[in-house]
Each structure stands twice: as structure tokens, then as C-alpha cells.
Amino acid sequence: MRLRANLSGDVALVVTTLIWGSTFVTAKDILAYWPPIAYLTFRFALAALVLCVLFGRDVWRAQRDVWRAGLILGLLVGGGFALQAAGQVYTTASKSAFVTGLTTPLVPFVAYALLRARPSLENLIGVVLASVGGALILLPRGTESINQGDLLTLASIILFAAHITLVSRYARRYEIRQLTVLQITTAAVIFLCVWASAQLGTRVVPATTLPQFLARETVALVWSARVLWQLVYLALVATLGAFLLWTWGQARMSATHAAIIFSLEPVFATAFAVAVRGASEALGARGYVGAALVFTGIIVSELRWTTATRGRSVIVESKQGSD
């Protein structure tokens, strides 16, 4: 029976990781028709609406500290997704996935900055391997140059790493459903405010005078059955459904075991991207060597994630990706 429970947990997390991997190419497709903040507004608003219907009563009973934690997490995850989505406009889905994968080996160092949890030797080795791999993927070849999409995605992983670190802290104190509703709703409200500001701004001043990131949000949205189904998939399957699978599956295994499964995300993402978008998503020989180093660095970094600090044990659990 225990073997069956472990296997069911593994299957749940592999399916979750497969779903997360598919979000990169799906988001890339939507971003060909919609600006980043508009896409994130609809994705997170739909997910928040369903979560509020399912768990709204739990949230209203939450203490003030839970609300504050949810707001902080929402700001971090919202900022991370905004930078990542903006980056995906300019870079490939496969590159975005492997750069996002650098979040995992980065987490121990953010945890040290925020929680004083000292990184282990494995963490140090993992981040070196992953950094070399990331450089091989991102550094220009021939006449190429590092594009702004790569830089925006790199910036996003700092916020994602901070988000993961604080989730590990808050999830031990507060009810996870309350935190989830609050952080996704916070992100949805932020995206809605930014997008609405762009729409209202054009009624006062010409779009060309707005900051570039706001001016981009003023373009007309292209509605089609394809875009609608992609938004529903990203909101309900990749955000809401994947979260439920993740929490159910990870309860049946250690954080290290789960993190190794999560390291498959960029592999799945690249497979989806190449299958759907073709050769334009291929990383090239040097890129695949870099991808292998990133993958190895993630696993090495997760081999040991328990460290003593201030006389007590601190375990940092990680989750990466587009959520």
C-alpha cells in the first residue's frame, strides 16, 4: 500500500510538471496576439474567481497576518510573472524554460538573505553548474546578442526565488488554501490595475507618450476560440488544477524527491516547444550542453537542503516554473 501511495504521488507530480512545461509554449502563442499584462490579467482573474468560489469562506476567516503574507506573496509572484511574460515576447519558450529553471539553485542563496539559512556545499556546486549552463544557453553566438527577453526572464527568477523562500516559511504557519487565494487574487488585482491604467491613460494622453510597457498594453486584443481555450487552460488547469495536484502529490514524498521531479519542467517545456513551434525553438548543440548543465545543477542543488540555523533545523522547499 505504501508503494502504491508513493507511486501515486510521483504520478501526480510528473503530471503537474508536464502541465507546467506546457505553459511556456502556450503562453508564447498567446503573447503573439495579446500584450503581457492583458494576458496575465485574464489568466489570474479567472483563476482567482474560481478559487474565491471554492475557498472564499476560508479567506474571510483568515487572520491579519495571513492577509499580509498573502499580499507579499502576491506581489512577488505577480512581479515574477510580469517579467517572465514580458521576456517571452522576445525570447523562445525553450530558453525561457531553462532560464526559469535557474530559480531552484538560486533559492538557497535567497533563503540565506531572507531567513539566514546557510547554503550547503551541494547548493554551491549546483548553482555553479547551473550558472555555466545558463551562460551557454544565453550568451550570443556569432552575430547574435543577448536580447532583452533573456534579461527580463533572468530578473524574474530573483522574484520567483524570493517567492519560493517565503512560501516555505508561511506555509508552515498558515493555511495553504488561504495563502493561495490571497496571493493569486493579489496578483490578479495588480495586473488589472496596470492594464486598466494603460486603457484609461490613452484617454488622457496619446499612447506614444506612455511608458513603453504601458503603451504596449493599449493594443486591441485579438479574440478567437484558440486564445480563449488557451486562457482557460492556463487559468484552470495550469494554475488551479496543477496547484491541487502539486499539494496532494508532495504530501506523499520528501521535498528533495519532489524537487528532482520538478527539474523535469524545462525538459518538458523544450519538448513541447520544439514539437509545436519547430526548429525555431531548438537550442543548438551548445544550448543543449548548457541545458544539461542546468538540469544537473538543479538536481545537485537539491541533494541536501537541510541546514542548521540559530540552533534549529530549517528546511527550504522549492517549486519552480510558470505556475
Written account of the structure:
This protein has a two-stranded antiparallel sheet with strand order 1-2. Residues 305-322 have low confidence and may be disordered. Strand 1 and strand 2 form a beta hairpin. It is an all-alpha fold. The protein is built from 13 helices and two strands; from the N terminus they run αααααααααααααββ. It has one domain (2-315). It has helices spanning 2-30, 36-60, 64-88, 93-101, 103-115, 121-138, 148-170, 176-201, 212-215, 225-250, 255-262, 265-277, 284-301; strands at residues 306-309, 312-315. The longest helix is centred in the N-terminal third of the chain and has 29 residues, at 2-30.
Layout of helices and strands:
Layout: H1 2-30, H2 36-60, H3 64-88, H4 93-101, H5 103-115, H6 121-138, H7 148-170, H8 176-201, H9 212-215, H10 225-250, H11 255-262, H12 265-277, H13 284-301, E1 306-309, E2 312-315
Antiparallel strand pairs: 1-2
